[in-house]
Amino acid sequence: MTTTTRSKPARTPRQTRAEKARATRRALIDAAADVVGEYGYAEASIARITQRANVALGTFYNYFETRQALFDILLPELGQDLIAFVGQRVAGSRDTLDMEERGFRAFFEYLGLNPGFYRILNEAETMAPVAHRTHFQALTERYVAALKIGHRRGDLAPFDEDELETIVYLLMAARSYLTLRYGLEDGKLPEHVVTTYMKFVRGAFAGERSAP
User: Fold this and answer.
1) Nearest to residue 131, comparing CAs of 196, 91, 168, 76?
2) pLDDT over 70, % of the chain
3) Considering the chain, what is the average pLDDT of its residues?
């Protein structure tokens, strides 16, 4: 008779206390994103957030002193997710125009995957102004840094380097208003909007330098 030796199932490593703490904190942030995206900041109670995160109400205060303390880091945390998402989509771009088109598409793709983000972003201006400023500072710094690379290659010949921040805000403003009109319809941006946007950007980036 042959005896079969069964191998023991591999044990799942236990999370360390620090890993559990990071996971719980992230669960609260993700739950807050869902709740604020659905109900808005005013109706995003701690009870709703902890219920969505599946943690005890008292656990909340192990991570955040107040609801506002969570709101003040919510948008910047989600903003880093957006930056990483767009960064993956623009990796390997041929030039600044290619990067801009990829980034433009990626922004709306992200909104389609995270429909509550736009409400979180807009309401933050009044409900979490610290978070709003922090988010736009991080977004602007990353965007300007990317354009500087193209500027040094000669992709933005009509502009001086100190004009790039203004360009970034113009492009972000365009995305914001296009979102109001198109970006939330079934989570998909009409292709003609991309074509028109890029026609505008291509003309601006390749235009003649204006006299001072």
Assistant:
1) 76
2) 89
3) 90
